[in-house]
Structure formats: structure tokens, C-alpha cells
Design goal:
The complex is a heterodimer. Chain A is of the alpha/beta class. Chain A contains twelve helices and twelve strands. In chain A, a hairpin with a 2-residue loop joins strand 4 and strand 5. Chain B has a domain of 216 residues: MetI-like (MetI-like fold, Orthogonal Bundle), CATH 1.10.3720.10. Chain B contains 16 helices and no strands. The two termini of chain B are 34 Å apart. The chains are: A alpha/beta, B mainly alpha. Chains A and B meet through helix 3, helix 5, helix 6, helix 7 and helix 9 of A and helix 1, helix 12 and helix 13 of B. Bound molecules: adenosine-5'-triphosphate, iron/sulfur cluster (SF4) and magnesium ion (MG). The site of magnesium ion has 5 residues of chain A, from helix 1.
């Protein structure tokens, strides 16, 4: 991407988010939903975040926006660490979120125009009711909603339309950065494509930066410049979208990629599938050392002892595996 | 299947821009209908609730309007005229009977407004006393419910929204109040407040007009009855707080007060209204039995309960004096309860999905 400079817009450093889970009357165990994740997002790019259900993608997105208070770690936005509640309040004008579920994330008692204008109301970003109205209509137009429907309630709309309302709302404050948490997984397949296209168009038009969460690899492939793979609260691989499809290095990513259907049957026949055996362990009782070792074909003794470091194996290609050099 | 989450639902063709037809399909709408309109529609279909509403409306309107044109007042002893000996013929009149001087005037061709329910033992028109009694009872019920609503809503909202230790402490206090026998406590509180010389404290203020006893009634309601309301609201807020749109509001920069006022309260307002409607008959009933026990409103102000209590003295000769206030109380309490039930059926979000 041409406008992409090498200065990161968002820097996440060793981010951790533990939830206290009650086990028994007075005992709590930490559930390590996100356990030491570090990555950068550059201005104007889209980073796709993939992983199985429950691996902590949503938690990364929400903690990144300080919707959950991080257990530890740093979030640096545009060179400045976000820490105090005043920082966070300012941050909310620059970084917004599109939610996974377009049904539960819109207040059923509010009209579309109130939903879209809520961020403007909170930050008092207009000087007259007329300006507010104009802004709402403009936003509705941006996302392809009929502006005559501004005074209707969210429950009167279809899933795809609701997600457009959610997107319009997230655009209201003119943000630079949007976390999109599986924005299409609740939608019909035919509508998924339209909404994803819209994300692309909006990015070109408004110069947005996305963290795009999905569990569908094909969705992120279409839209992302780089892709991060998560497993059990940790990031296992991060590299460009092309690279991860052609040359995944981590055993988990390899297994994922081999499961992606190939459009060309000839290639499909030649490539062999690497099956994933066993189930994902519970994040409450994560295995010692490498989180993937219980399902990894290459696991050795060291994997049980030491947590593999998330390191830059090649330029712009990060992997967390002790044996990555041997395997490939 | 190990990879069930990484499925192949999408193919590349699906990413072509939407055609005009597809776009038109996207903007098709259902007819507009709001939650409120739906509720009204359901409510109107409910005959019993509708009749209750009409009865309540009639009672309320007559309580307000009748005293303005009724020729007798609730504390006027008809037999007592300045400069004349007390005319005891006015005491204990049966319905549609007249006192001696009135009979003379009728004989002289004058038209006298009848005593619909007769008079009481002191010669006061009983009908207007019933009207005043109903007025007091309704007012007490209404304002007591408002007090309960305000206290219960504030405490419940804080408890539910803050959670954690605050919630724990508040809920234990609620549990304690809840577990006390309320009849006993009300009577104790009411008689204790009677001893406080409240009348002297409020002398000369606007509160004097209301009367010390009614104020202590409100205190009783305020202290005791907010607990169930606050429990209800807390439960609502607790579940609403977990809704994703609250998180979405936080993501937009909203903080405590905004979230409570814009998202949590409007979504539990129907529950609040319904339980307030159900609280009114409760308060009326309590007021009635307190007045019946002599702990209610000050004489000569009547309330339905004190009227019933007074009627006990002459129950064998004038049973209708007990029956009339009893019927009015029952009518008010019953229709308010049925109305509240009807409102709940029509507006309870749980039935709406
Ligand atoms: N508020 C919470 N309290 C306790 N545990 C939580 C909470 N939110 C998430 N978790 C746990 O953290 C882990 C990661 O959850 P998260 O929602 O981030 O996963 P995900 O990758 O987004 O999954 P999905 O694809 O299903 O959305 C899960 O085990 C989940 O049970
Ligand atoms: S560190 Fe070991 S267990 Fe983990 S992925 Fe690499 S080889 Fe497998
Ligand atoms: Mg999720």
C-alpha cells in the first residue's frame, strides 16, 4: 500500500488479559484469554486476525480499545501510550469498533439516527441539531442505507442493514482505526460479500486502518494485507497475507492452510491435508510451554518446558515455535 | 472435524460489487411499528384491563371533580348552625332522608340536594366523605408509589450498575428489611412516628396541610416498600448491563451516567411502570388498614379506612356505612391490580422477544 509508512499507528506490547473465573465458593482461577500478545499495525493497512473460536480474538480487539482493562501490557497509539481515563476518552474519537452481532449490539429502543449519532452526542461533536442531522444522513449514505429510514428502530431492519448501521455508527467520529470483530459472520453469505466490499471501499475513501477479526480465512484473505494467527491466547504467526497462504511456517498455520479449499482441483489434489488431532485445551488449563504442543506433530521435550518466543524468523515474518527452522 | 471453524462458505465470485437488484433487495422494509404501538394494540385487546382502566379513570375524575360542585363539604356538620341549638335530626340520616329544617324548606317548595348516602353520626354528608376518603386514599397510594419508585430505582440502579462490593452491601440491607414482618414493622413505625411530635415540627410549613399522619405514612412506605422495587430494578440492570449495546456505547465513549440514563433505564422502563402500577393498590390497602387501626389520617379528614373504622360503632343499625367504603376500596384495589396485570401482559419485554 502506497500511503503506508513504516511508523506503526498501533503498537501492542505484551498485552495480557486474564478473567477471574469462580471455581468453588471462594476460589478463583485466572482464565488467560490473551496471554502476552505483541504486534504493530501500520497506518492504512488491514491486519487480519484469525483463530479458532475461543482463542481470544475478541478479547484482543476489546482490550486493545480499552473496553476491557488490560491485565498488563502496553497499548501505544500514534506514539502515545493510552493509560489514563482521559487518554481513553480521547482515544475513543480515533479508534472505534464494529461488533460481531448486529442484533445485540444495537439498542432496540433507539432510532437509527440516534444510534448513529450517539458517538457524536457523547463527544458533543456538532453545534446544531441541523448539523447532527446532516452528519447522520451523510453517514447513512456512506454505508448504503436509505436516509428515509433514519427515524426507524433497529429491529425493523435485516441483519445486513443492521450491520451497516453499526458501521455507520463506528464511522461517526471520523476515526482513523477500526476494530472489526467478525463483522460478517452473523450475516447471510450473499450479504457477507457486499458488506466486505463496503469495508474495502470505505478504507480507500477514508484512509482507514483496520484490525479485521474473522474465523473464516477466505474473508480475511480478501481484505487483509497482513494476517496474524492466534492459538489459545497467544499469537503464533504474523506475516503478509500472500506469505501465509503460500508458505506458512508454524505447524498450526500449516494445518489451517492445508484445510483451506483450493480453487484449482489440480493443486488441491497435489497438496495434502495436515489433520489437526485432538481438541483445543481449555484456556483455564493451558498446557505448559508451547500452547499448541498437545496437538503438534513436531512437539518435543523442549516444547513442554519453554514457551516459544514470538520472533522474526525472516523479514516481516514472525513465528512462535522452537523448531520452525528444522521443520521447514 | 478439526477445522469446522475454517470453513469454505465463500467463493471469490461472491466478492463482486452488488448489482442494482441486490441493492434494492437490501432496502426492503417491514412496515414500521414501535414497541409502544405494539403494546397499546395488545392492551386494547385485553377487555378486563380496559374496563379496569375505565373504572379507575372514572373514580379518579370523580374524586377530583365532585368536591367542586357538591353543596356539602366533608367536615360540615349539617345540624350545627351558628346561633342556633344543635339540630340532632341531621345525625344518622338514612340515604335520601332530610333533616327537619330541610323538610320544612322542601315543604315550602325549595329544592334540596339529596344526601345520597345519608349522613354520619355527626350529621356530615356521607357521600362527600366517601369521595374525600377515596381522594385521600388514591393520593396516598399514588405518592407513596412515587416515593417507592424513586428510592427503589436509584438504589437498584446503583446496586446493579456498580456491582461488586457496593451491590453486596446494598443487597444484604435489602435482605434484612425484606425478612422483617412488614405488618408489624409498619404498625410500630407508624405509632413511633406518632410520638415524635411531628405535628409541631411541621407547623407553619406546607406540610402542615397534609398532616403529620400522612407524612409518617409516606415515611413508612419510603423505608419499607422500596426493597422489592430495588431488587427488581437491580435484576433488570444486571442483565441489561451485559448486553452488547452497552459495550458498544462504551466503545463510543459513554460513561456511567450516560449508560444508565440512555441505555439501562429506557430498557427497564416498562417493568418499572408496571410494578409501580401494582404498587399503588398495595399502598392504598396499607393506608386503609392503618387508618382503620387509627394510625392513618388525622380527623376530620376521612380516608376509606377510617370511614370503615368509624362505621364499626353503628354496624348493626347502619351496615351500609361499612359496606360502601369497603366496596370502594375493593373496586380501586381490584381494578388497579387488573390494570397492572394487563399492562404487564401488553408491555413485558419477555413476552415480546
Ligand atoms: N467477559 C469474560 N469473562 C470471562 N471469560 C471470558 C470473557 N470474555 C471472554 N472470555 C473467555 O476468554 C476466552 C477467549 O474469548 P474470546 O471471546 O476472545 O474468543 P474469540 O476468539 O473471539 O472466539 P469467537 O470466535 O467464538 O468469537 C474464551 O475462553 C472465553 O470463554
Ligand atoms: S514449539 Fe513445539 S509444540 Fe509448539 S508448535 Fe513448535 S514444534 Fe510444535
Ligand atoms: Mg469473538
Amino acid at each position: 500500500m502506497s500511503e503506508m509508512t513504516r511508523k506503526p499507528l498501533v503498537e501492542v506490547k505484551d498485552l495480557k488479559k486474564y478473567f477471574d473465573i469462580n471455581v468453588g465458593m471462594f476460589k478463583t482461577l485466572p482464565l488467560k484469554a490473551v496471554d502476552g500478545v505483541s504486534f504493530d499495525i501500520y497506518r492504512g493497512e488491514t491486519v487480519g486476525l484469525v483463530g479458532e473460536s475461543g482463542c481470544g480474538k475478541t478479547t484482543v480487539g476489546r482490550t486493545l480499545l480499552h473496553l476491557y482493562t488490560p491485565t498488563s501490557g502496553q497499548i501505544i497509539y500514534d506514539g502515545k501510550e493510552i493509560k489514563t481515563s482521559a487518554d481513553i476518552h480521547e482515544f475513543r474519537k480515533k479508534a472505534t469498533m464494529v461488533f460481531q452481532d448486529p442484533y445485540s449490539s444495537l439498542n432496540p429502543r433507539m432510532t437509527v439516527s440516534d444510534i448513529i449519532a450517539e458517538p457524536l452526542d457523547i463527544h458533543k461533536m456538532y453545534s446544531s441539531p441541523e448539523e447532527r442531522r446532516q452528519k447522520v444522513l451523510e453517514l447513512m449514505e456512506h454505508v448504503g442505507l436509505n436516509s428515509e429510514h433514519a427515524s426507524r428502530y433497529a429491529h425493523e431492519f435485516s441483519g445486513g442493514q443492521r450491520q451497516r448501521i453499526g458501521i455507520a455508527r463506528s464511522l461517526a467520529v471520523n476515526p482513523e482505526f477500526i476494530v472489526c470483530d467478525e463483522p460478517v459472520s452473523a450475516l447471510d453469505v450473499s450479504i457477507q460479500a457486499q458488506v466486505i466490499n463496503m469495508f474495502g471501499e470505505l478504507q480507500d475513501k477514508l484512509g482507514l486502518t483496520y484490525l479485521f477479526i474473522a474465523h473464516d480465512l477466505l474473508v480475511v484473505r480478501h481484505i487483509s494485507s497482513r494476517i496474524a494467527v492466534m492459538y489459545l491466547g497467544k499469537m503464533v504467526e504474523l506475516t503478509s497475507a500472500a506469505e501465509i497462504y503460500e508458505r506458512p511456517l508454524h505447524p498450526y498455520s500449516k494445518a489451517l492452510m492445508s484445510a483451506v479449499p483450493m480453487p484449482d482441483p489440480k493443486i488441491a489434489r497435489e497438496s495434502h491435508r495436515i489433520p489437526l488431532s485432538g481438541d483445543i485445551p481449555s484456556p483455564l488449563h493451558a498446557p505448559s510451554g508451547c500452547p499448541f504442543r498437545t496437538r503438534c506433530a513436531y512437539a518435543c521435550e523442549r516444547c513442554a518446558m519453554e514457551v516459544p518466543e514470538f520472533r522474526e524468523i525472516e523479514k516481516d515474518h514472525f513465528v512462535a515455535c522452537h523448531r520452525v527452522e528444522e521443520i521447514n | 472435524m478439526a477445522n469446522k471453524y475454517f470453513n469454505m462458505q465463500l467463493d471469490v465470485d461472491a466478492f463482486l460489487p452488488a448489482s442494482a437488484e441486490e441493492k434494492a433487495y437490501m432496502v426492503q422494509m417491514r412496515p414500521s411499528t414501535t414497541f409502544f404501538r405494539d403494546g397499546v394494540k395488545r392492551f386494547v385487546k385485553n377487555k378486563i384491563a380496559l374496563i379496569s382502566l375505565i373504572i379507575i379513570a372514572l373514580i379518579v375524575v370523580s374524586c377530583i371533580v365532585i368536591p367542586f360542585f357538591w353543596p356539602y363539604s366533608y367536615d360540615e356538620m349539617l345540624g350545627v348552625k351558628l346561633g342556633r341549638p344543635v339540630d340532632s335530626s341531621y345525625n344518622n340520616l338514612a340515604p335520601f332522608e332530610y333533616g327537619e329544617t330541610e323538610q320544612e324548606r322542601i315543604a315550602a317548595g325549595e329544592k334540596i340536594f339529596p344526601h345520597l348516602f345519608g349522613t354520619d353520626s355527626q350529621g356530615r354528608d356521607y357521600f362527600i366523605r366517601i369521595v374525600y376518603g377515596a381522594r385521600i386514599s388514591l393520593a396516598v397510594g399514588f405518592f407513596a408509589s412515587i416515593i417507592v419508585l424513586i428510592i427503589g430505582m436509584t438504589v437498584g440502579a446503583i446496586s446493579g450498575y456498580c456491582g461488586g462490593k457496593v451491590d453486596l452491601v446494598i443487597m444484604r440491607i435489602v435482605d434484612i428489611i425484606y425478612s422483617l414482618p412488614d405488618m408489624l414493622l409498619i404498625i410500630l413505625l407508624a405509632s413511633a412516628l406518632k410520638q415524635t411530635k411531628l405535628d409541631q415540627i411541621i407547623q407553619g410549613t406546607v406540610l402542615e396541610k397534609i398532616g403529620a399522619n400522612i407524612i409518617s405514612l409516606f415515611v413508612v412506605f419510603g423505608v419499607l416498600y422500596w426493597v422489592s422495587m430495588s431488587r427488581l430494578i437491580r435484576g433488570q440492570i444486571l442483565s441489561l448491563r451485559e448486553q452488547e449495546y452497552v459495550l458498544a456505547a462504551q466503545a463510543a465513549g459513554a460513561r456511567g451516567k450516560w449508560i444508565i440514563m440512555k441505555h439501562l433505564m429506557p430498557n427497564c422502563i416498562s417493568v418499572v411502570i408496571i410494578s409501580t402500577a401494582l404498587q399503588i393498590p398495595n399502598a392504598i390497602f396499607t393506608e386503609s388498614y392503618l387508618s382503620f387501626l387509627g394510625l392513618g389520617v388525622n380527623a376530620p379528614m376521612p380516608s376509606l379506612g377510617s370511614l370503615a373504622s368509624d362505621a364499626l360503632n353503628g354496624i348493626s343499625s347502619y351496615p351500609y356505612r361499612l359496606i360502601i367504603p369497603a366496596v370502594v376500596i375493593s373496586l380501586i384495589v381490584l381494578s388497579l391490580n387488573l390494570l397492572g396485570d394487563g399492562l404487564r401482559d401488553a408491555f413485558d419485554p419477555k413476552l415480546n422477544g
